[in-house]
Amino acid sequence: MSPQEAGQEAAPVSRRSKITPERAQELFTAVLDMLRESGYESLTMEGVASRSRCGKSTLYRQWGSKPELVVAALHGTRRGLLPGIDTGTLRGDLREAAKVIGEGSGRDTPLMLALSHAALHSPELLCAMREALILPELAAIDAMVRRGVERGEVAADNPAVEFVSAQLLGVMRARPLLEGGYADETFLVRFVESAVLPALGLDAPASRS
């Protein structure tokens, strides 16, 4: 390699630190959008570079490989949608959680489906997917139920208590496979009122919104 070529190769390395947090978020958003659209197997570093108007060499220097980039995108966009919910009653909390999950189902469900197969063969990817998409919501729903038990709304020994989060998040993922449609807000609120609340010994509210 000539000195000139060496200089051309070395120059981009010095630019690695210039990927700002804002630019990283743009790249991560592009990665997740492409996963939703085409799946994990179809995702390529070349495609991400083109979509985000970023040099492919920059992506490789920063993240090394597609799996590493996807893991970084999941961690970098991690957000909990449910932790702020506290209506004062378990019934109200679960209905509000159903609305929030339903509003995001068209965004989150395709992403989980796109990553599920690949995650089975990659412990790091599985861990990142759980930490970004699943664990924050599990913890929030479990906290809602715990508060309901502490307020005396639900008996602590009610066997349905431990399955509430699995019901809500499980039906969100399963409905596209079973019925060909996302578990949207209307569906999930009906599910909570018809299946989750009765199992906890709680009545659905008289009026629905």
From TrEMBL:
UniProt DNA-binding region: 44-63
PROSITE patterns with a match to the protein in the record: HTH_TETR_2 (PS50977)
InterPro entries found in the cross-reference section: Homeodomain-like_sf (IPR009057), HTH-type_TetR-like_transc_reg (IPR050109), HTH_TetR (IPR001647), Tet_transcr_reg_TetR-rel_C_sf (IPR036271), TetR_C (IPR011075)
Gene3D superfamilies for the chain: Homeodomain-like (1.10.10.60), Tetracycline Repressor, domain 2 (1.10.357.10)
Protein's UniProt keywords contain Transcription: yes
The HTH tetR-type domain, residue ranges: 21-81
Record keywords: DNA-binding, Transcription, Transcription regulation
PANTHER family with a match to the protein in the record: HTH-TYPE TRANSCRIPTIONAL REGULATOR RUTR (PTHR30055), TETR-FAMILY TRANSCRIPTIONAL REGULATOR (PTHR30055:SF149)
Protein name as catalogued: TetR family transcriptional regulator
Organism encoding this protein: Streptomyces brevispora
